[in-house]
Specification:
Layout: E1 11-16, H1 19-29, E2 33-39, E3 46-53, E4 56-63, E5 83-87, H2 91-100, E6 105-113, E7 116-122, E8 128-134
Parallel strand pairs: 1-4, 5-8
Antiparallel strand pairs: 2-3, 3-4, 6-7, 7-8
Amino acid sequence: MGVSLAKDSIDLGIVITDSEASLAFYVGLLGFEHVADTPMPIGGGGTMHRLMCGTSLIKLVKLDTVPEPGPPGGIVGATGLRYFTMIVDNLDEITTAVAVAGHTIHIDRAEVRPGVSITMCADPDGNWVEFVQTDG
């Protein structure tokens, strides 16, 4: 049967430890639009910072009681959700901006197949973010 989508993109929830640092990364550095802050009614309370990346909603969740971090190591660190990807047309610019801002670049610009290059970095909590650019 499959899912009957009501929206052409996904919403992604990321549990964070520091609202200020995460908003500086996702809004200030990457340029996501901060649309609202809402209370978190589950998990002991907290705040959900709602950001738009195109038509995808990125939900940064800062709980009042911060849970233990997940396993580190990016793609090969564990099974489960390990990173998310954005298709960009300014890979060199965003890679430089992320590095200058002091965030870890795990994979500097690398061509993964002809005409397709990536960079992978970490957000303030160590979550991996991938930027992909295609030539042409």
